[in-house]
Automatic annotation (TrEMBL), chain A:
The UniProt record lists the keyword Transcription: yes
Keywords, alphabetical: Transcription, Transcription regulation
GO process terms (BP): regulation of DNA-templated transcription
Protein's recorded name: IBH1-like N-terminal domain-containing protein
InterPro entries noted in UniProt: IBH1-like, IBH1_N
Pfam (any one): IBH1_N
Domain IBH1-like N-terminal: 6-68
Organism superkingdom: Eukaryota
From TrEMBL, chain B:
BHLH domain span: 242-292
Name assigned to this protein: BHLH domain-containing protein
Ranges of compositional bias, category Low complexity: 196-212
GO cellular component annotations of the record: nucleus
SUPFAM superfamilies, A to Z: HLH, helix-loop-helix DNA-binding domain (SSF47459)
One Pfam family it belongs to: HLH
Main location (coarse class): nucleus
Cellular compartments annotated: Nucleus
Stored InterPro entries: bHLH_dom, bHLH_ZIP_TF, HLH_DNA-bd_sf
Domain of life, source organism: Eukaryota
Gene Ontology MF terms in the entry: DNA-binding transcription factor activity; protein dimerization activity
Keywords, sorted A to Z: Nucleus, Transcription, Transcription regulation
Originating organism: Salix udensis
Amino acid sequence: MRAPRSVLKQQFLKKWMMGLQVFGSAKQSMSILERKKAIKLSADIALAATRDGRTCWSRAIIADASKDDGGKVLVQHLLSPESERLKKACTGLVMDNKRVRCKKILKRSCCIKRIRKGASKVALAKSISKRIVKRRTQVLKSLVPGGEFMDDISLIEETLDYMVSLRAQVDVMRRSLAKATEVVNGK
Amino acid sequence: MINRALLPAGGGENMLHCTDMTVLERQRARIKWQQEQQQQQFQLQQQEISYFTELADVFHQAGFHEGGLSEVVTRSVKPDPGLVDNGWNNDHVVGYGVGLPYNNGLGFELNYGAISRTSSCPPEAVAAVAAATVKGSESVVSDKISSGAGRESSKKRKVDKIQNNSKVVAEEDTRDKRIKGCAEQGESKITEKNNNKNSRNNNTNKNNNSNKENSDETSKDNSKVSEVQKPDYIHVRARRGQATDSHSLAERVRREKISERMKYLQDLVPGCDKITGKAGMLDEIINYVQSLQRQVEFLSMKLAAANPRLDFNVDNLFAKEAFPACSINFPTIGMSSDMTNPAYLQFNPAQQQLLACCGLDMGIDPPDMALKRTTSAPVSIPETFLDSSCFTQTHPPPTWDADLQNLYNVAFDQGRQTSFQTQPFTGDVKLSCLFLSALY
């Protein structure tokens, strides 16, 4: 089981370093916040790039990053070796999401008319738990990138994938930080 | 095979005139059917890829006359030549065709249309499924099997399964690709666990379906199911009057799917073994994702603080477990070769040289480049680096620290013995310090 996980990490690391090279070549002096943003941005895009556009969250990240110039450069740099269609898929995501959002608003407005018959205790508890679950799915949707436009089932799948990738990302970053501090301390 | 087909035919004769039949007789026939089907299914549960069979069922449940049975059989045989449950599929098709043509009103053309679509779809489905790993598809398959365990002619059940199939196929692709591309430990565990869950799911579904059977029989008769098939999913529309039942069934399928995926998440999220409810699980998941995201932010901040110039590439590259570092260096070399301005060189000449040395595949002659670009002191660095990469691993330069040793090891692991110049090894503390200071 080690092998596939480390493959993911290596891919991520490689793409992350590629992205950082872009920043490294661009400016030589950046404030710490700028650096942090650059690091995080390249890490996120690298993470999304490892998925090759197969998952919704990765496409959402890339689509978001492509909106501003800095991210666009990174995206082009990281993704151009792989596929043009991926980039197009990510740009097309915005339109799809808008459509989905409109549909959901429509659905929600229709559902509000439902009468709540919470007379019995059991039904009341059920409705309460439903509300809690709904609220928490809303929160989860806000956490997972591109999550607002997914239904429950695909949301959970995306969360699964996203969690795995996040874990790999954290692991790689932590190790690189350890190495960096080690070198700096050892100097 | 033929016997099995004939058996329901005996009971199915009654069903040819479904307007005259009583509900009870139809119920009896269906129960008999279901039992047989369940037996068949559980026999073949382990091996089958039943996606296309479900499709076939679904379509044949649309109802067709006995005359079209032979066509049905032949057409359904076509898609699955090489599959294990070919015979079973035939059985299934035959049985359903004979036994349950209760929709007299349904046009014959529709049936054939549906059947032809059936025959066209399974190859794709089969291809999709065959392309997936067995484990990856098995989880989905078991889901379908379990949901189809109590399969009958009920529209609700059909709607159920069709929606199940549709979502399952779409999810199956993503999941299979995921498992193929990056089979993480969690996911492989998931598939293993899922195999254990399969039997559980099947048993529970069998019970549920048999319970539902009697209650659901009455209202199915009048509705039709028209199916429009697209390569990826099946869309089912039920007539008015069936809405509530199909909704409840669809909801049940949805709930089962959600709970199944929640179980996957339970494996991934640490400390979620004891939590059983959806709300609690969601809470844990949210906390975990939030904590991971916060960790990423924190780590990126720390990295920014530790590296004033975002130049920690080389060090971190080689700090990982052994991997083909050359592939990583390619783009960096490409970039470094572009930057010939001395200003940049002064910042990190050593880094460039290192990268250049590693990336000899690029066709650049980095030693020459390095020699031309740099001053005298750093020149010896690439040379020594080249030297040590030529040497065996038992000859690491003692004065270099651990990082650079890793560097050498990795370079050696690349196994590329290109045109390294063999020069006397001149590593010493001074060079190492120079190298490090150039990096940071």
